[in-house]
Design brief:
This protein is α/β, with parallel strands linked by helices and 566 residues long. The protein is built from 24 helices and 18 strands. The strands form 5 sheets. The chain has a 5-stranded parallel beta sheet with strand order 2-3-4-1-5, sandwiched between helices. A 5-stranded mixed beta sheet has the order 12-15-16-17-18, with helices on both faces.
């Protein structure tokens, strides 16, 4: 067996702690989260992080650590922590291992198109947790309590029964074990986000609110609870009256190193696999998130990239996160931005930053009420990162926001390209096309300029960006074929249009770009001169295109100058 074969595999696609440990996968040790929770006691801790940042792995780790598995005939979970950091922390912490009843619920898959189907899913997950703890039934002295437990386990309870079932199960477990219960709820807000997207948000809120509040508020049977999700969601909308809630958002310094990979952890992984040479490439693509004052990598994308390099060292990095998360928020932002928000999006696309007041307690149904809410949502869901933070005169937190890395930059660009293609398909370009074929440079400039004003610009590609614009707006000219960067004459012209019959007109476009508006006319003239010097029209005439129209086009930001050779 080779040294490579002896190496542990990275846990690609594994979300459960016990599976990672038992299968011998490489585990990035986050077990000191246990120590932090015990050292900083809080009745309820809500920890919000973007999707795919290790929330489920941490929640299942907590379950494996704290749960008393003896009544359910479970395995000895203490062996799972052999040699890990929490074991080295000492008996003060390990004496809590395997000592508590635990309720574990994950709502990450509650994504159905109607409330009825989503509620059925929730009911099934809750019922399964009752079944998992069915050992308590034999010691329930009261017949009515026993019947309710069995009804909930068999999925036969009413919606009112299930709306308070968290509190009920918590009490039953505490009475059986003689110890208070730990509640772990993973991705609590997925049902809310899905309901918001599908149009039944209020119905879902009306179920989730009493379910959580009854189990978490003033519950004498609760040891503590840890809830994870993507968005905080305001206390008024869901955590009504819950005064014992500690919120750990991406702005908090507490627990900041436990979700995502730190640079130290990344370096250790790369050294283990002999991939130190990929460090900067990984940093460019998947680093850049700031949780509190800790910079972290996207773990999902990092694991996929390293796994791919173990298979093929020359594999190119790619945006793995785009395939797992709903990117509808980016698309919705692009669809709705106007005025200042549009300028801000363009600033982000060229690598700049924007300043926004942060509101941590928005609700899903408020996200699209204004652009600032959308920016906040994009920040808390991982599409933007913090690069600076201040407090304004109103004592509000103001954060400098930026696109985190290459992976997210590609997501934004792809969504903008989709939007652009749809806008091109919807717009009537007949006047523009007629002007091109009739040689009316003034109208071409006017129509193209109007379209540029309505387009989201990202200038990092310079001429490539404008080249794409031109290809898009020219694509609908009937009976004409487009060639991009085709070799002609003594050089390469940017775009050539030829009538498909071989007997109509041909059109040449040479494009230039400048960042200085004072240079735009000069650049237009340079484009026209290049057509002449490069003899771009000669080959077209050799193909019997006697009517060749030649345009030089210069761009600067959202302006253009169009010239035509006689």
């Amino acid at each position: 067996m080779s040294a490579e074969e002896d190496l542990a595999s990275l846990p690609r696609g594994m979300s459960f702690f016990d599976q990672v440990i038992e299968e011998g996968a490489y585990y990035i040790d986050k077990t000191l989260l246990v120590k932090e929770l015990l050292d900083r006691p809080s009745a309820v801790t809500l920890c919000t992080r973007p999707r795919r940042f290790g929330k489920t792995l941490n929640q299942t780790m907590l379950k494996c650590f704290f749960e008393d598995t003896a009544p359910i005939g479970g395995k000895d979970t203490r062996t799972l922590f052999k040699g890990l950091k929490i074991e080295s922390a000492g008996n003060k912490y390990m004496e809590h291992q395997g000592k508590y009843p635990v309720i574990f619920l994950s709502f990450k898959e509650v994504k159905r198109e109607t409330f009825e189907r989503s509620y059925t899913q929730l009911k099934n997950f809750i019922a399964d947790e009752f079944k998992r703890h069915s050992y308590v039934v034999g010691k329930i002295p009261d017949d009515n309590t026993k019947k309710l437990f069995e009804k909930l386990a068999s999925r036969e309870g009413s919606i009112d029964d299930y709306s308070t079932s968290l509190l009920f199960l918590c009490k039953c477990l505490a009475e059986y074990h003689g110890k208070k219960t730990i509640i772990l709820i993973d991705e609590y807000d997925v049902p809310l986000e899905n309901a918001w997207v599908c149009g039944f948000y209020n119905e879902m809120i009306n179920f989730i609110r009493p379910f959580l509040s009854s189990g978490l508020k003033d519950n004498a049977s609760l040891q503590f609870a840890v809830i994870t999700g993507c968005l905080r969601v305001s206390k008024e909308s869901i955590f009504t009256g819950l005064n014992n809630l500690t919120i750990i958002s991406i702005l908090s310094n507490e627990y900041s190193e436990y979700f995502g990979f730190t640079q130290h952890e990344v370096d250790a992984i790369l050294k283990y696999y002999g991939l130190e040479g990929k460090r900067q490439l990984l940093k460019n693509w998947y680093d850049g998130y700031m949780f509190g004052n800790t910079e972290v990598y996207n773990p999902w994308s990092f694991v996929h990239a390293v796994t791919n390099w173990r298979i093929a060292i020359d594999a190119l990095p790619s945006p793995h996160w785009v395939n797992t998360s709903s990117n509808s928020i980016v698309r919705k932002m692009i669809d709705t931005v106007k005025g200042e928000a549009k300028t801000e999006l363009e600033t982000l696309m060229i690598g700049g930053t924007i300043s926004k007041v942060i509101h941590e307690d928005i609700t899903y149904d408020e996200v699209y009420k204004n652009a600032d809410n959308i920016w906040n949502f994009m920040f808390f869901t991982g599409y933007l990162k913090k690069v600076g933070q201040t407090v304004n005169h109103k004592e509000e937190i103001v954060v400098e926001l930026k696109i985190p890395n290459k992976e997210l930059d590609i997501i934004f660009v792809r969504k903008i390209q989709e939007w652009f293609n749809e806008r091109v398909n919807q717009k009537d370009f007949s006047k523009f096309h007629d002007a091109i074929l009739s040689g009316n440079a003034a109208v071409v400039q006017e129509e193209l300029g109007d379209f540029l004003l309505d387009t989201i610009s990202y200038m990092d590609g310079k001429e490539d960006f404008y080249h794409g614009i031109m290809l898009g707006v020219l694509s609908g000219i009937h009976n004409y074929n487009l060639k991009s960067n085709r070799e002609t004459g003594l050089g390469r012209c940017d775009i050539v249009m030829k009538h498909s019959s071989g007997r109509g007109k041909a059109v040449i476009f040479e494009l230039k770009w400048t960042s200085d508006m004072k240079e735009i006319e000069k650049k237009r003239d340079e484009a026209l001169k290049q057509i002449i010097d490069g003899k771009y029209a000669d080959e077209l005439r050799n193909e019997c295109y006697n009517d060749v129209i030649k345009y030089g086009v210069a761009f600067c930001q959202k302006s253009c100058e169009v010239g035509k050779l006689d």
